[in-house]
Amino acid sequence: MSLEIQPQAAPVAEPVADPIAVEVAPPLFRPSVAGWLARGVVMAAVAAVVFLVPTVRGNVEVHIYTQAVIYAIIGLSLNVLLGYTGQISLGHQAFVGIGAFTSAYMVTVQGQPFLAAIGMAMVVGGIQALVLGAVSLRVTGLYFALVTLAYGTMAEESLFNIQNLTGGSAGQPAPKPMWFTTDLRYYYLCLFFLAAVVWVDWRLMKTKGGRALAAVRENPRVAATFGADVKVYTLMAFVVAGVFAGLGGALLAHNDTFVVRDLFNFQLALVFVIMTVVGGLRNRTGVVIGSAFFSLVGYFFDKLFSGGLSVPGIKVLPKEYAPIVIGPMLLLFTLTRHPGGMGQQIRPIQRWLRGGRFSFKDTHDAEVRVSDARA
Fold first, then answer.
1. pTM of the prediction?
2. What is the mean pLDDT of residues 187-209?
């Protein structure tokens, strides 16, 4: 009996991973204590400028700062249309003007409290935006812009001439509310409304409706195939924009304590569109900064060039025309160099304040295309 011994196969060595070829995930960046302290100092400085600087300024300057806050609300309202839905509104001054006259009428003629007047202005703003939104379901782009332009012209020539509502050429008084009769207190009240608008806008884009708006803006047909009701979400965006615009108009009327129809003209509508695009579409911080800048540009212009700017061959340029002169130049620069506007420029700072690295790279300028700013 013989035993056959089978040769055993040599064990196969397992491949050793090359330590150089292994991709190691970059460590998560965590700011040091000094880094967080520096961020806290920057945020405290911004808060001091917003909350404390007006306390040491005169009433005239505080009135101008309040107007900047109100313009930020109006810019956010137009951003809902232009940024979220891609619809151009060249008659936004009508939304703001009707809100202003409605609030002034409710307080002065009807004797209603300030909050009731503000609420009615927001309701009226939402209703008129809903009507224009229904029109936008059939026409878009340039044709819808022409519709809003016609609506703004109609409001100037007819609605703003209603004697009982606007007071005619004499205007309509709009006193400040009780407990906020001083310019400084009213400034803080407008800051509260701005914070509320920012919060509502932020919450809107975090909901299913906000995500649907983003999908509708990119491609309505594709969004519809995924179950998004294009008509409903478009109308929702218009109503939100109208409510914000009505609120901004009401606050603007009570800031001036007197509202006249000549203020709400086509030039103001152009300023609203330019400040929103230059601020940065779909960037709340950029829109707020851009809107406040265009509100204050006349004030800065007056400080730099007392009495106006003398252009060769042209008479002295009043400070009231500063936004409409400087605005197109900034708009061209935005469209050609930085489509994301001011929001694109401050994005590295925003990322750094949230705890990231400070870098001018990765500004996501592709998020906002020139076609989005076709106004």
1. 0.85
2. 92
